[in-house]
């Protein structure tokens, strides 16, 4: 059969992927909206009933038991999605979406320190993958659908459509950016964000204040901060993986791991007399842009999150990384003679860039959240953090290139 003229072939491609991306966006954006509303309700309930933290070990056991009994095939979460894109085997079981949604809301309700990105990405990828059963779609189309689902989930949960699109293209291989799904990922991310807004989702606004002019001092200071952000991102990923491996060795019966981790978190909250380091921690993040905070806040959040995720609670790493980065930037600001808001914003994205090995998505996120004035500093810090964070990140399934500085 004679091939179609290129303009017509491209038009058909756009029509096909506009239709598929629209369905992915509707599914992922709606799922994220339901998740965010549920998360808000769970957070408000926990804050109104702080004694519920003592039930965290039992909640952890319940989450662990449900995954041990019904979710072993999907327990790998984001890593399963990455594996299926790079080396596809079978359609992701649909039960991943309700399992991760319910388990994340439970984790937040009872006081674990976990995030939300993992849940949204897993729901988006799972729902998108169900479309690969449609007639006429091949293995290459399935890869693109999964990437579009990841982008849609990320975009709709954070309100950052462009960062979501780039994240879906960048997260698979360290040091490599996939271009074969660029239009589907952009379309799905933009539309999913709009679907969330149509459902009434409201995203947190962060005010960074003034951004200093670029000088030799500010550039050097941001480079130094970027090194610190990268090292902390690497430490976070390494500690989480190490604790997870240790818990599996010590407690072969999976439900006991989050039970033990929940007990540690509950006792630590009681001993410290504060719930500052559990849940999402959005109020603390907002404060980091406006005023000096305790210089150890980033370390407290890191420790609570490592225990929560390393012991098996579900949710994600990204929002805790935002907290760690913003509060670390807040602590470094007076030392580096930079404004609190500006360095909190840079840290917000740069620790994530280092831990997830996604410097481009993180830079774009800074532009979307904080405006273009911070762009140069964010790009510099995210790149430096990425270089100094090593070859291991929060996603075990990421494929690694030989070097971050050579092809």
Which labels suit this protein?
1% strand, Clc chloride channel, chloride transmembrane transporter activity, transmembrane, transmembrane helix, 407 residues, 16 helices
In summary, what is this structure?
The protein has a two-stranded parallel ribbon. It contains 16 helices and two strands. The chain is 68% helix and 1% strand.
Structure description:
The protein is an all-alpha fold. It has two domains: 10-198, Clc chloride channel, CATH 1.10.3080.10; 216-400, Orthogonal Bundle (Clc chloride channel), CATH 1.10.3080.10. The protein contains 16 helices and two strands. Strands 1-2 form a two-stranded parallel ribbon. It is globular. It comes from Pseudoduganella armeniaca. InterPro entries: Cl-channel_core (IPR014743), ClC (IPR001807), ClC-type_chloride_channel (IPR050368).
């Amino acid at each position: 059969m004679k091939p179609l003229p290129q303009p017509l072939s491209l038009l058909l491609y756009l029509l096909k992927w506009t239709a598929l991306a629209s369905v992915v966006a509707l599914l992922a954006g709606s799922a994220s909206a339901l998740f965010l509303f549920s998360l808000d309700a769970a957070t408000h309930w926990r804050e109104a009933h702080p004694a519920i933290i003592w039930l965290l070990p039992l909640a952890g056991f319940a989450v662990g038991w449900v995954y041990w009994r019904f979710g072993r095939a999907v327990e790998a979460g984001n890593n399963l999605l990455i594996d299926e894109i790079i080396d596809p085997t079978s359609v992701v079981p649909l039960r991943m979406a309700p399992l991760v949604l319910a388990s994340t809301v439970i984790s937040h309700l009872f006081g674990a320190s976990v995030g939300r990105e993992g849940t949204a990405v897993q729901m988006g990828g799972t729902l998108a993958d169900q479309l690969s059963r449609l007639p006429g779609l091949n293995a290459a189309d399935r890869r693109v659908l999964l990437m579009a689902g990841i982008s849609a989930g990320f975009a709709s949960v954070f309100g950052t459509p462009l960062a979501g699109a780039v994240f879906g293209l960048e997260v698979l291989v360290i040091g490599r950016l996939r271009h074969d799904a660029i239009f589907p990922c952009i379309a799905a991310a933009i539309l999913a964000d709009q679907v969330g807004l149509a459902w009434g989702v409201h995203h947190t606004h962060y005010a960074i204040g003034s951004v200093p002019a670029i000088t030799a001092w500010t550039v050097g200071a941001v480079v130094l901060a970027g090194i610190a952000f990268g090292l902390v991102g690497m430490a976070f990923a390494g500690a989480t993986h190490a604790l997870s491996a240790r818990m599996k060795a010590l407690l072969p019966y999976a439900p006991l791991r989050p039970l033990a981790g929940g007990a540690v978190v509950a006792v630590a909250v009681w001993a410290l007399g504060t719930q500052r380091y559990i849940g999402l921690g959005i109020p603390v993040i907002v404060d980091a842009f406006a005023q000096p905070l305790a210089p150890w806040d980033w370390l407290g959040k890191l420790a609570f999150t490592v225990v929560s995720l390393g012991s098996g609670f579900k949710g994600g790493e990204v929002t805790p990384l935002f907290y760690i980065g913003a509060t670390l930037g807040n602590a470094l600001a007076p030392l580096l003679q930079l404004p609190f808001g500006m360095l909190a914003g840079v840290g917000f994205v740069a620790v994530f860039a280092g831990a997830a090995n996604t410097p481009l998505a993180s830079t774009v996120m800074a532009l979307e959240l904080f405006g273009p004035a911070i762009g140069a500093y964010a790009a510099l810090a995210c790149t430096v953090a990425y270089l100094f964070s090593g070859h291991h990140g929060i996603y075990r399934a990421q494929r690694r290139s030989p070097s971050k500085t050579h092809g």
